[in-house]
Amino acid sequence: MTALFTTAAWPAIDIDLSVSGGDDALEDRLRTASRLYAANETEDVTAQDYAAAALAEYNTIVGVLYEEGYYGPNVSVRLDGNEASQLNPFRLPAEFQSAQITVETGPRFVFREAEVGPLPDGTEPPAEFARGQDARLDVIRSTGQDAVDAWREVGYAKADLTGQRIVADHPAEALDVSLGITTGPQLRFGRLAVENNRNVREERIRAIAGLPRGEIYDPALVADASTRLRNTGAFSAVAMREADEIRDGDTLDFTVNVVEAKPRRFGFGAELISDEGVTLSSFWMHRNILGGAEKLRFDVEVAGIGGTTGGEDVNLTTRFERPATFDPRNILFVQTALERMNEPEYNSDQFRTDVGILRRASDDLTVQYGVAFRRATIEDSDGETSYSQLLFPVSATYDKREGGSNAVGGYYLSGEVMPFYGLNDSPEGIRSTFDARTYFSATETTVFALRGQLGFIEGAKAEDVPADFQFYSGGGGTVRGQNYQSLGYNDGGGASFLGASLELRQGITDAISAVGFVDYGFVGGELGLDTEGEDHAGAGIGVRYNTPIGPLRLDVATPMSGDDIGREYEIYIGIGQAF
Predict the structure, then answer these.
(1) pTM of the prediction?
(2) What pLDDT shows up at residue 266?
């Protein structure tokens, strides 16, 4: 009894794994799955822990071998030379010194018969599930599940694997497998019941979910409904559950259980760029302002505090969003902004109000369109000019990044095309901007990030449009190392812009990584690749420290063109990657 209940911990024991048959990959998988190896890496492990792990080792190893198609193995697990299955748990030694795991895989079986059905028209079983292929257990499982999923995708929500026959012929080293599917009837979406809501109205939850009542069941639509409800921010948890029983012969009802999030939220941010100064921002948001998951948000930002590139910029923004407007995928937004900008080449005061639709077309694609009225007074080298404009912005974002904003692969595309029309004899035209980013992992810790930016104005000359519509280069968003908006065209901004950035991100520890980068910017006088213009470049190094809210970023850059190469430096501090 003393040995059974002792809590004394002992050093790790010696473990020897011997595998006869299979290959190195199989041996690695067995070692990874081993309970004894796992126990050996655990702190405060006792003799009882090793005995329990050894007893569980038989099932663990046999399970891995079955997964790989070995159905006649011999497995021995010994502690200090004694078979683990024969140990008396009431007479264990105070400690163990060694463990020996001996595995004889036996022959790998192949499929002799491999049948699954019925299957929907146009659906074929996987190539691995066929006569002569390795009879791996994971292939059998996935084949059955894939068959069920195929029926569910065409409306048979209650399809299930109800017939299963598996026979092992050891002399022939073969497996006969027959999987039978019961489809049930093709079903249609029925009623959606709502549970656990407190402040968000049921009819609005149903509208946002958008399950198409009466249409053929589709599991993708169920997943989309859950995603839309989560994306409102009004719920901390959403669980969609289909009814156990079919109603009226072909109707499937659903229940959604929601947990509402705290309705109010606030936050703040800060960024420092050496010549541009400090940027401080804050917001307050209500995520259920009218009881239908409507969002109201107020933002305030003050930039250029202590900077040398003009004065301070102030921006006040109010945005209202109503989900499921005209369509479950649509979000109606109304936004107003008051802004004062003190830029190196101009000062402006403006008011802008937008009304539009934000449409989440898919998990990756978001489209936004609307109409805006803008009133601005801009003072530059030509004096003070007032503009009244109607704007018709259309934008889209396609985000296929792996790892989110701290991407390690994939790509990101965004663009905006904005026709503008002057109401007080100001010019009309189209202003367009595009941003493309791609990421490539050379190793587990090395990531290359590449960004390209493009902007241009059509239908009007750059000198005729408002100064804040013109293009400049320099600063944290374009070319690091160069002064903010230090590059334009002639005495103002340009009609076109081309930017490119390359970063090498090298992980040092789990939390810290180093970055080397080079940026390039070109501002042209007109639209076209052969236009006259000016260009500049910058380069530098940086460090990132991962936090739960994103990587903390510190970059130091110097110009790579002009007279200040290696003599002037800019510092950039913020949250998140540069792109």
Answers:
(1) 0.78
(2) 93
Answer whether 212's CB lies under 8 Å from 273's CB.
no
pLDDT of res. 529? 64
Q: What is the DSSP letter of 161?
A: E
**Mean pLDDT value across residues 378-404:** 90
Q: What is the mean pLDDT of residues 407-417?
A: 95
Contacts of 192 (CB under 8 A, 6+ apart): 206, 209, 211, 213, 253, 254, 255, 256
- The angle formed by the CA atoms of residues 63, 69 and 74, to the nearest 5 degrees, is 60
Q: Judging by beta carbons within 10 Å of its beta carbon (0-12, 13-18, 19+), is residue 167 exposed, middle or buried?
A: exposed
- Binning the chain into helix, strand and coil, the percentages to the nearest 5 are 15, 50, 35
Alpha-carbon distance of 110 to 129, in angstroms, equals 10
CB within 8 A of 431, min separation 6: which ones?
418, 420, 455, 456, 457, 465, 469
The tally of CA atoms less than 13 A away on the side-chain side of residue 403 is 19
For residue 573, what are the contacts with CB-CB under 8 A and spacing of at least 6? Answer: 271, 272, 273, 552, 553, 554, 555
Q: For residue 364, what are its two tokens?
A: 């990756």
Say how far apart CA 501 and CA 488 lie, in whole Å.
19
**pLDDT the model gives residue 288:** 96
The confidence score (pLDDT) of residue 11 equals: 58
Q: Which of 252-281 are b and which e, b meaning 16 or more Cβ less than 10 Å from the residue's Cβ?
A: bbbebebebbebeeeeeeebbbbbbbbbee
pLDDT tens by residue, 94-123: 899 999 999 999 999 999 999 999 999 999
Token pair in block for residue 331: 């979000």
Q: In the beta sheet, which residues pair with residue 375? A: 351, 388
Q: Which two tokens stand for residue 267?
A: 């936050």
| Mean model confidence pLDDT for the chain | 92
Quick one: pLDDT at residue 29?
Answer: 94
Task: Please say whether the beta carbons of 517 and 504 come within 8 A.
Answer: yes
Tokens 């000198």 belong to which residue? 463
